[in-house]
Amino acid sequence: MCVSFKFAKTAAVIFVQGIILFWTTFAHAVNLMGNEMQLHGFLTQGAVITSDNNFLGQSNKKASTDFREIGVNASMRPTSDVIVSAGLLSHTAGATDNGGLRLDYGLVDWTVSSNEEGRGGIRLGRVKNAYGLYNKTRDVAFTRPSILLPQSIYFERTRNLTVAADGVELYLDRYYEAGSLFVTFGLGHPLIGSEAVKVALVGLTPNGRFESSAMPVFQAVFEGDGGKYRLGFTTVQIDTHYNPGVGDVLQAGQLKFTPKIFSAQYNAENWSLTSEFALRPTSIQNFGKNAPDSTAHGQSYYVQGSYRLAPKWEALLRYDVMYADSEDRDGKAFAAATHRPGFTRFSKDWTAGMRYDLTPELMLRAEYHRVDGTGYLPVQDNPNPSALVQRWDMFMLLASFRY
Amino acid sequence: MKNLFGISVFALFLRTCSLYMLAVILITANSYADTQEPAMVAIAFPSTSDSVISRSSLRAIFGMRLNKWPADTPVRVFVMKDDAPEHDAFSKNILQVFPHQLRMAWDRQVFSGQGQYPEQVASIQEMLSKIASTPGAIGYIKINEVTNNVRILQIR
């Protein structure tokens, strides 16, 4: 079982590397049936070392390299109103993601109407969710502000809940003299059938699976003055129900997650200031006596500044905070009720980082995190709560290539 | 000790707030005063575009979000390398968008399957010949290098 799994993993990695080799031998664009097809991809490898606890693999006092992102994508425009595109992704993240190849997105985008003042259209298929400022390309290192996205909002732990959905997204752009307004409304099924999602939501012991009804995702972003400032609002409603496994400790309950994100960014020529604030209420119902009905008012925010020191160098400083329940910020009530450490209910992460672009295609990054609390650590990498340490440090390195 | 830490976080928060306010002040002060850069103009294939265009439409076109001219011809966007002085001057002075923001807007669309990159040319000669020979083409050039087989787009 384990051997065949390892074999499958190795085969998948070789397959993806093969595809990349094949992809890069083409130019950036090939001509297919008179239509230009653009081919792109990326290969990112990270290394993580922590003073205590594990993140993205066994990182405790040793380097973990179980942090890898490999992607390829293709797009073509059969007419000026239609884009057909697909992206494949292998994402390795410690014990939460084994790097299995999956469809990251695959869609048909039809611009129904378009003129000088704006455009409107529809995307059908698997669409990345417009969730905060960074989710649509969260696995593409070049589009991230740092090695690790602010975990208070872009959890590695619960990424599959909000990463993409199978369904439809309507979009409306308006181009005004003062700025542009981008509105999207998505309705689709989130990718939540996996073990990783189950663990993130209810822990290791229960052995069932989650299902979800169609999830609405609404986002409005205003970009003022050619994108010098961006203001955004996102709201999502996820309604899931739980199918218990055989002899499960949980009953067939419902879990409802309704996050709202407020985003703001200012871009100058050499520096950017970004902040997002999220309210993340999660309520559970009918899971039985092992998980009484409750609502946790999750709250998150970060403030992030980046400065372009020279054309190829960029420095970053960020303070990133999450509370699992804003009515129990220090986790004391949780600790009293569960005898588990209260500091697992929050994290306060100071991050300092540096980016160096060796060429436009090759980027190197280094990052240091000083963290108080273990709120964003996945339980798969840290199965024993009594081994967790409240104050910990993390050093990360990353190299990313794209074409 | 815990209190001290709390205070220093508060002080940092205040500093961040003042940074925000500074940013607001800089929005007006940080305009494009650099006059050393070459004067750029947007150019297009002569018969497929209008000769006057709004800045917001031009931004949408170079942001790869507006893919069709009013008469339904597909738009073909040509740009030079990100660090070319022409690209820098055109982005900042004509579009009034920083080149790194354009790059970010393209990357975000391409890697989520919602758009494509513009076509990159290596030289001024290539820019001129592509614009002159490709229906629907749009690009940019220094004003003193314009030839009469491309059309200058006036900004409304």
Helix-strand layout with pairing:
The complex is a heterodimer of chains A (403) and B (156).
Chain A: H1 2-25, E1 29-32, E2 35-50, E3 67-79, E4 82-93, E5 97-115, E6 118-128, H2 159-162, E7 164-175, E8 179-190, H3 195-202, E9 209-212, E10 215-224, E11 229-236, E12 238-243, E13 254-257, E14 260-267, E15 271-285, E16 294-310, E17 313-323, H4 332-338, E18 346-359, E19 362-372, E20 391-402
Chain B: H1 2-29, E1 40-44, E2 52-53, H2 55-62, E3 76-79, H3 85-95, H4 99-110, E4 119-120, H5 124-133, E5 137-142, E6 151-155
CA distance, first residue to last residue of chain B: 61 Å
- Tell me the major beta sheet of chain B: 6 strands, mixed
Order of helices and strands of chain A: HEEEEEEHEEHEEEEEEEEEHEEE
- Order of SSEs of chain B, N→C? HEEHEHHEHEE
Q: CATH superfamily assignment of chain A? A: Porin
Q: Averaging pLDDT over every residue of chain B, what do you get?
A: 83
Mean pLDDT level of chain A: 92
Which oligomerization state do the chains in this entry correspond to? heterodimer
Total discrete domains of chain B: 2
Q: Which strand order spans the largest sheet of chain A, edge to edge or round the barrel? A: 2-3-4-5-6-7-8-10-11-14-15-16-17-18-19-20
The greatest interface here is: A-B, 54 and 45 residues
Superfamily at the CATH H level of the largest domain in chain B?
A: Periplasmic binding protein-like II
Helix content of chain A: 10-25%
CATH topology type of the largest domain in chain B? D-Maltodextrin-Binding Protein, domain 2
Going by CATH, the architecture of chain A would be: Beta Barrel
CA-based gyration radius of chain A: 21 Å
CATH class categorisation of the largest domain in chain B: Alpha Beta
Radius of gyration of chain B: 20 Å
The structure class of chain B reads: alpha/beta
Span from first to last CA of chain A?
37 Å
The proportion of residues in beta strands of chain B is 15-25%
